[in-house]
Amino acid sequence: MDTSRDEMLAQVASLYYEDGLTQQEISQTLGYSRSSISRLLSEARREGVVEIHVHHPLERSFALEQHLHGQFGLKEARVLQSSGLTYPQMLRRLGSLAARLLEAQIRERSILGISWGTALFEVASALPIMHCPGVSVVQIIGSATSRDHLVDGPGLARAFARQFGGQYYTLPAPWLVEDKAIRDALLQDRRMREVLELARQADIALVGIGTVEPALSSMLRAGYLDETQLREVQASGAVGDVCGLQFDRQGELLEIPLAGYAFGVDAATLRSLPLVIGVAGGAPKAPAVLGALRAGLISALVTDDAAAEAVLREAG
């Protein structure tokens, strides 16, 4: 689409959504038919010139939040009441809940480290535009896949930086590599070292929690493993990962060559950061959430009541 068309769409959208004019009034102002104004408004939404967010009430379970705090010594816990919601609806509201937590934590010169995935996309989508030009957003793991740029690391880094009005830094490398020697060689690259050094200085990290359940597996969705290979990873005892770091139900880290070698920050770095917010929901994710908590890879959790209840039940 050319620039003049973009400007026209923005003008019509601004008159309608910001100035509150009716389509008929815009038609009279600009000299277009009312039906043309209607089509232009539809096109503005379709092309992303206009984004509409419905802010649903976010009901929380404070009792479950207190239990998670007490059981795992979390710095922050947010539990969404998700009864009656579909998984996509739950994930969108979880993103809104995490966005509110992130908004409260971010400061003028914060360094925000991010992984990637659908949960983080929902957080970025729910964030309001904030004036924090000193904020730096940095990928803390490599990129996932070219299949969906919206949920991949570079796309999300740009999205978060745009909302904050800050800078972003990307890792031009894959999330997982097949050979440990390749990963170690990539770590020697000057550009990679500089970005990872910035990641190690992060004040806040925002991460998804991966699972080995095929229906929700990021490794499967990104094409790193097929379903047969994923079952083999399950058989090795893995229940999930944070930043590609695999662990079992007890939180013991596992090195599984079939699952690849993660490129990004290591477990020691994650454990040393002031605040690592894990975002994941749904009962099927509970074993992965529990493993991540026991491994000490996250220090804050945004989840829903179904996952929280299952985690607390298993933790005993």
Q: Could you walk me through the main structural features you see in this protein, from its secondary elements to its overall organization?
A:
The chain is of the alpha/beta class and 316 residues long. Helices cover 46% and strands 14% of the residues. It contains 14 helices and 13 strands. It has helices at 3-18, 23-30, 34-46, 62-72, 87-105, 118-126, 153-164, 180-186, 190-200, 218-221, 227-235, 267-272, 286-295, 305-315; strands spanning 76-80, 111-114, 136-139, 167-169, 176-177, 204-208, 210-211, 240-242, 245-247, 253-254, 261-262, 275-279, 300-304. A 7-stranded parallel β-sheet has the order 1-13-12-6-2-3-4, sandwiched between helices. It has a 4-stranded antiparallel β-sheet with strand order 7-8-9-10, with helices on one face. α6 (118-126) links the parallel β2 and β3 (136-139). It is globular, with a radius of gyration of 21 Å. The chain starts with a helix and ends with a helix. The mean pLDDT is 91.
